[in-house]
Amino acid sequence: MAAKHRVSRYSEIAGVLIKHGFRYLVEQLGLKSIIFTGDDAVTPDKYHRYSYPQRVRMVFEDLGPTFVKLGQLLSTRPDLVPREYVEEFSRLQDDVEEFSEPDIRNQFKREMGKQPEELFSYFNFVPLASASIGQVHEAVLPGGEKVVVKVQRPHLTQLIEGDIRILKNFSGILQNRTVIGKVCDVYEIIDVFERQIHKELDYLTEAVNTEAFYREFCNDKNVVVPRLFSDYTSRKMITMEYVEGIRVEEFEEHNYPVEDRQRYARNMLLAIFRPLFEKGIFHGDPHPGNILFQDNYRIVMIDFGIVGRFDQVNRRRVAELLVSLSERDVPAVMNIIVETGVTTRKIHQQHFFEDVAEIVEKANGVTSGGFELGQLINGMITISINHGIKMPDSLFILGKTVMISENMARRICPELDIAEVVKPLALEYLKELLRPEFYTTGMYKQISNLSEAVVTLPKDICRAVRNLANNDTRITFYHRNLNWLYDMLDVSSSRISFGLILAAMIVSSAVIMHTGKGPLLWGYPALGTLGFIFSGILGVLVLIAMLRSGRLR
Prior knowledge:
With 553 residues, the protein is an alpha+beta fold. The protein folds into three domains: 2-93 and 158-200, no CATH class; 247-435, no CATH class; 483-549, no CATH class. The protein has helices spanning 2-19, 23-29, 44-48, 52-63, 65-74, 83-89, 101-112, 116-119, 156-177, 180-183, 186-201, 203-217, 248-253, 258-278, 312-326, 330-340, 349-363, 373-386, 393-412, 418-434, 441-469, 483-515, 526-549, and strands at 122-123, 129-130, 134-140, 146-152, 223-224, 237-241, 281-283, 291-293, 299-301, 307-309, 342-343, 389-390, 520-521, 524-525. Strands 1, 2, 3, 4 and 6 form a five-stranded antiparallel β-sheet that branches. Strands 5-9-8 form a three-stranded mixed β-sheet, covered by helices on one side. The chain has a two-stranded antiparallel ribbon with strand order 7-10. Helix 18 runs antiparallel to helix 19. The longest helix has 33 residues, at 483-515.
């Protein structure tokens, strides 16, 4: 049955590709022979009026959840796909049908071992919202608490795993034999997507993220994070406290005074960026559906399926970057870019300086609301790509978060200066790094490690000196990924040995021919003649083998 399903999926993919004018790709992938359905008689006018990125986006939409999520990921990764595809993929939306009550019941039975009526005093089978991964339902716990239950789509994991296997099966062809491989690293795209989608499919990961943000804001009167109910949570089902609030579209309809709008926008930015500097975590998808507004300037944060994380080193760099950008410190921004990423080729320093200076000056003071932080972050990412500096994945999530949150803040209060909110957080974090921490667990651990080093260091030095005096100093080298060198040396030594034997045969045959003695063949000494013939055949075979291997150099 599984094999039949895979063949059906191959056929579906082939049909969709042909429908949008990618027949040549179907032929290169070898899918032409298994097409069962699909519009095989598409006229050129039907798809030629769309650009190549638009057609790829439509293919992703037609192929369902796996490819929709892939496109949404690529919309935040200009390092993996060209900019025109990033812009087109950003239009992908979760436009999916609701799954039925029997599917919900089956999912409950598999995950919780019970039906919804056995777990909740009330459960509404009509969803509040539906997306490509799951849908949200309203329910009431036996204790009377009103909750929301997010249920994952049935068989979604199997579908996505199957699609990833298909992508991996065709990755070599896509990389080496199509135009896709000329503009993208197909292998890296699949690896990044597989890692990200596995996190989103595991609701226990979202539960851990929700708990982390709840602990961060549980005593904050300005930020509300729903409480998690772990007894009603599993890998494919998550239950949280029901919290109410209005979306940014509804907020804009209210005629709030400027002061109120500023407080709402400020509290929203603090809710998003404060955890970044305090705990190294931040909401990775704060779109208008995940940020709500309550009375008394309270901000509601929900849906922590995508969360970015930074260690202390990268937190410091982000803080320094925000300060340097706001102060137009171009050399500092250049240094931070180089330190944060991995340089893959030699950087042209003058061009690098000009590009950084241009993006800093362009983004500063463009609007009445201060500098465009999102434009700066994404400009920095673009510069790093152009100059061969590979940035960590979390920076792209941060770039997306900054863009979305900044856009929402300006919708709420166009007059707000983003720098006045974010820069103090960065400065305070940098100040904290300079303050010594006494009587803390970290301090005790550092003192313990230092005392141990002080005790053992003299012994280690004496042992090293003694070994050196006894001529007993040994240095051990470990190598990694040098099998190719062993293979090359083996082939080279074999060819050298073969060449020496061949040369010896030719020389000995020539000596025999010079004597003119022994049995004759065609008027020449037979042994010398056969030696020349055999040497010639072997020499031609070796030459052919070297030409076929492409290593005749």
